[in-house]
Amino acid sequence: MKIDRQTSGDPAFDTLLGGGLEARTITQLYGEPASGKSTICLVAAIATLRAGHPVVYIDTEGFSIERFRQIAGEDTEKLADRLFLFEPLDFEHQAIVIAEAEKVLKTQKPRLLVMDSATALYRTDLEKGRDALQSLTKQMIHLLGYAKRYEIPVIITNQVYMDTTRNTWYGLGGYALEHISKVIVRLEKAESPGLRRARLVKHRSRPEGAMIEYEIIESGIRSRT
């Protein structure tokens, strides 16, 4: 079966993903603050917009118009016309926004849905325990349904928690979020100052542990070859 893919906006990142972002699939990016999650999302969104396709963008941490302008450059105004931006106010509103996004999916036929971050507002609801996790799982299943129904890639970013017993960090959401995401990329700081590393944690056809290094620049990211 032929797998439909589209560019992430960076050739090296496309290669890491086996040819680009896979349609009908959730690709999860997780990592510490300043690892480049939001920048990679913007680069992918702008690449899709440049190709002439609308994008649905759900941002739970405050969309940076200035960062969008830096990456989009002189095309900012033209590209912004095809960007459908949602900014949920809390975790309950996040579920409502995800449901409302289908109106855009039906009428505007976007070729990418981005959710940055899927777990920022969930984290504030963690005191509710099991109910919060169940709600997060339902929301992610809703997004997966969009990916399959409208045959588009979905990118979600995920925050992390530190496992003190193993002295390492993992993505929030546990097994449920891990299972729903068919591609998972861990973003981390590399040894060299200013460099970041994208490492495959999960992929159906690429080896676990495959990686690229990149730096965050004003116009997006620059991969090291």
Top keywords for this entry?
single chain; Rossmann fold; 225 residues; alpha/beta
In summary, what is this structure?
This protein is of the alpha/beta class and 225 residues long.
Task: Describe the protein in words.
The chain is of the alpha/beta class and 225 residues long. It has a single domain (5-224), classed as Rossmann fold (3-Layer(aba) Sandwich), CATH 3.40.50. 37% of the residues lie in helices and 29% in strands. It has eight helices and 13 strands. The strands form three sheets. Strands 5-4-6-7-3-10-11-12-13 form a nine-stranded mixed beta sheet, sandwiched between helices. Strands 1-2 form a two-stranded antiparallel sheet. A hairpin with a 5-residue loop joins strand 10 (183-189) and strand 11 (195-202). Helix 2 (37-50) packs across helix 3 and helix 5 packs parallel to helix 7 (130-149). The longest helix has 20 residues, at 130-149. The protein is globular. The protein starts with a strand and ends with a strand. The mean pLDDT is 92.
What letter string, H or E per element, gives the SSE order? EHEEHEHHEHEHHEEEHEEEE
How much of the polypeptide forms β-strand, as a percent range?
A: 25-35%
N-end to C-end Cα span: 31 Å
- Count the beta strands: 13
Major pleated sheet: 9 strands, mixed
Mass-distribution shape? globular
Give me the secondary-structure category: alpha/beta
Strand order across the largest sheet: 5-4-6-7-3-10-11-12-13
Mean pLDDT: 92
The number of domains is: 1
What is the CATH domain class?
Answer: Alpha Beta
